[in-house]
Write a structure and sequence with these properties.
162 residues, alpha+beta, Immunoglobulin-like, 7-stranded antiparallel beta sheet, 7 strands, elongated
Length: 162
């Protein structure tokens, strides 16, 4: 009867440890490089053109927004059949008439497809513009200019085809 010979134990050397450390930190470095590259390519980081000027206007814009909310102003944004429609009504539900309505459409991530639309007033008091939006999530920054009162700003998020 023969007995199998015991396997020779492999010794853990410094080269094994070096290999483990190089692979471990190589994976960490590669993932960090990928994430940093993706972040830079997908978002510009630009929120306002000039942060100093925006900070100087903040209190005025906040006071205007509070006053408009107290008056019951409500804005609504809809998209369907290739038309973007914005409505702005006062506390009594009457449509407000503006000099101009502009909407900056953008994606939450990236700048592909960003566009600025100038809406025209319809007979029912709403504002609309023809536009073909790709499927996905869109951010809308709406600026309404009035001749006799402070401007109205509204932010909305649209889910197109979801």
């Amino acid at each position: 009867m023969t007995h199998p010979s015991p396997k020779a134990q492999r010794e853990f050397t410094g080269w094994h440890m070096l290999t483990i450390m190089v692979v471990f930190f190589g994976v960490i470095f590669s993932v960090n490089l990928f994430m940093a590259t993706s972040a830079v390519r997908t978002w510009t980081g630009l929120v306002v053109e000039n942060s100093y000027v925006a900070s100087q206007q903040f209190n005025t814009k906040l006071a205007n927004a509070r006053d408009q909310a107290a008056k019951g102003w409500q804005g609504g944004l809809e998209y369907g059949a290739g038309t973007l429609t914005f409505t702005l009504v006062d506390g009594d539900g009457a449509a407000l008439t503006a000099q101009s309505v502009t909407i900056a459409m953008s994606r939450p991530i990236g700048t592909k497809g960003d566009q600025t639309l100038h809406l025209t007033q319809s007979a029912n008091g709403s504002y609309s513009a023809p536009v073909e939006l790709q499927t996905g999530v869109w951010n809308a920054a709406i600026m309404v200019d009035f001749a006799d009162q402070p401007d109205y700003e509204h932010r909305a998020r649209l889910n197109v085809g979801l």
